[in-house]
Amino acid sequence: MNYIDATIEMKIKEDGNPKFEIVLPHIVEWTCSIDASNVAVIRKDGWDAIAVDDFWKFKDIMRDSGSPSPFNAPYIRGVKKHDADYVFDEDKSVKWNRNAVIEYNKAVDSIQAKNKKFQKNANDIFNSCVIACISSAFRYEGLKINIDEIECIIANAEERDYNFPYNFPYELIDQIENYCDLYTELLKKRESHA
Question: Do 83 and 123 form a contact (C-beta atoms < 8 A)?
């Protein structure tokens, strides 16, 4: 996980009430789409696209020590909620400080929402690459596969990978690749005997 330290700055609005702004360093935004030829295309702002269409390339990207990785969601840390009786300014009223705590805690909640968004994006990119790799492996063997069959392969790999989701993602990819190889071999044998 890529940890990002955040701070929250307090500014006073014209009406005298506090406003809290989250201060973050630049965060690399990754996107992924599957193109017409079922290749997962990963992009990050300002960089060239990375095409993922086979398990070797996928695992190379995952094992790359370069940071940040499209599969490693950033996690914003460094801020915690304040208790209701926290005092921001001793010269202000109790009501002002309570409102300040509410506003501050809303800013902290928005950070948690960003963390969930980052994790969902990393999962979506990972899943898109898995789908592209499985599709590519079947195309290479001259076989067709639909999304239900792909999801079945992924589910079986996750079920058999006893450490999922706590292990390294490339270990899950190894499991998926093994299931993919087994499935293609079974289909090829079925076709050769038909």
Answer: no
**Which domain range does residue 125 map to?**
2-193
Dump pLDDT digits (tens) for 63-103.
765 556 777 778 888 889 999 999 999 999 999 999 999 99
pTM: 0.77
Q: Can you tell me the distance from the alpha carbon of 85 to that of 55, in angstroms, rounded to the nearest whole number?
A: 54
Respond yes or no on whether the N-terminal peptide bond of residue 18 is cis (omega within 30° of 0): no
The number of domains in the chain is 1
Q: Who's near 93: CB < 8 A, 6+ residues apart?
A: none
> Tokens 């079945």 correspond to what residue?
152
Burial-class residue 175 by CB neighbours within 10 Å (0-12, 13-18, 19+): buried
